Amino acid sequence: MSKRSLSAIIKDWNIKTIRENRRTPSQIRQIIEENPNSLEAQLATNPYAAILASPLRKCSFHSRIFPSKLLLRFGLAWHPETGRNWAFPTLRKSKGFGYYVNLKKDILQLLQKGAYQATFRGAATYRSDMVDHVQNVLFQQSFIEFCKHPIHTYDILTPVTGKQWKSSSETIEYQCILTFDTTNTTICSLDHQIQAQKHIPCYNMHQIWSQESIDDLKLQLNIPKALSMTLGVRKSVDTVQLAIDLWHCRQFITQ
Length: 255
Known about the structure:
Strand order of the largest sheet: 6-12-9-11-10-8-7
Radius of gyration: 20 Å
Distance between the termini: 38 Å
Number of helices: 8
Shape: globular
Order of helices and strands: HHHHEEEEEHHEEEEEEHEH
């Protein structure tokens, strides 16, 4: 276990805006390498901890405070052809003022029906296909994040039973499982298992990524297009954002 108390770790989070007190990425990696079972290491590689620890922002729709990773940020940009400010979604850190709303499809549908006028205080035009646009942006962002990592970050899994999988290593833990099953219409199941690790989110990527992207991925892995495959995303500080992006897709599409 970690030699540092939980209160000390939380205190670090509370003062993380002071740059000199923040742990650097290299320091975090060193902690994980030296003591992977410590509480601090477990928090650093946990996407749900990262979501809850994200900066607090006010949802303009509900007028309530939430961790920012539970919200969708909109920026405003001038559109020269229409002569108006248009709202656009931003999924990564952005400078300047932004409007935050709960990342739920039904909320965006209400905005699309006219509630955007109050949310953006009449300062922005809201595109009529915003729900579909946000969904596509979320899906694309998860693929972009996936491609940032070397292909060896992902392990090919072999099935044991319907929801049990086996990897080449007995010691590696996983953030999530990526299946490519054209017959399954469920975007995510939460009860899969790899070796002794249970309750691993399993995403059906055919519901998220395009067929072209999946075919390109199979080509990199030397897997015939006709064959199905299942990948395990290793648990590390580097794959936290990918796990968050996939969680965003699930949260949005399953509303």
